[in-house]
Amino acid sequence: MYQLEYFPIRGLGEVIRFLLEDNNIPYENKFVQKDEWSQAKKHGVESGQIPFGQLPVLKDGNLNLAQGGAIIRYLARKHALYGENMEEQAIADMLYEAARDLRYEYFRYIFQDNWEDQKEAFLLKAKVSLACFEKHFQRKRTKYVASENICFADYNLFDVLDHLHRLEKSLFVEFPHLNQFYETMKNRPRLAAYLASDRHFAQPVFIPLGWTARG
């Protein structure tokens, strides 16, 4: 069974949980608390259990795998969620990276001291990226980002869209294809069950130095 080691937050871990939950892949969470992290990090780096002193880390037997992108791609390869050919895989990689960029723009926004005053400016910037995703779905005319079958990149895009939807529910009105994708993902039976459960981390979004629940 996989073990996902991370903080008790949404952050960079929830997208991995989305993939695991939606595909009924057994795993367990190992949560690292604030007062444990300094010692856990030191020991983890020395032992190789936390290879780069960062979480999340996926443990699979003797493998300790860090970096969220590496983790989700590893799971995608193992569980046939990476696309059926090189073109689909390339598209999946492209959409994963584009969604990751948007996620970090969101993180930068919510950790500004005056983040509430910057909402409209952030939404205008986000719409530029969302318009590109909208055009992608218009061109592809597929249910998911790379094909009619779900892949790892779909979970990453869904996670980012869910952050934005929580911030501004009307944001997707001008992006009907993107909104349809969001609704399709949200209503996948296993994913919907997880989202409705008390195991799902809607908040806090992230823990920088201050362990804030903002977002």
UniProtKB/TrEMBL annotation:
Q: Which PANTHER family does this one have? A: GLUTATHIONE S-TRANSFERASE, GLUTATHIONE TRANSFERASE
> Which molecular function term from Gene Ontology is one that the record holds?
glutathione transferase activity
Q: What sort of enzyme, by top EC class, is this?
A: transferase
UniProt subunit comment: Homodimer.
Catalytic activity reported:
RX + glutathione = an S-substituted glutathione + a halide anion + H(+)
What are the alphabetically sorted keywords of the record?
A: Transferase
InterPro entries according to UniProt: Glutathione-S-Trfase_C-like, Glutathione-S-Trfase_C_sf, Glutathione_S-Trfase, Glutathione_S-Trfase_N, GST_C, GST_superfamily, Thioredoxin-like_sf
**Keyword Transferase on entry:** yes
Enzyme Commission designation: 2.5.1.18
Which GO BP annotation is one of this protein's?
glutathione metabolic process
The answer to whether UniProt assigns keyword Transferase to this entry is yes
Functionally, this protein is described as follows: Conjugation of reduced glutathione to a wide number of exogenous and endogenous hydrophobic electrophiles.
Q: What is stated as this protein's family in its record?
A: Belongs to the GST superfamily. Mu family. Belongs to the GST superfamily. Pi family.
Q: What is this protein called?
A: glutathione transferase
List, for all copies, the residue spans of the domain called GST N-terminal.
1-83
Q: Which parts of the sequence belong to the GST C-terminal domain?
A: 85-205
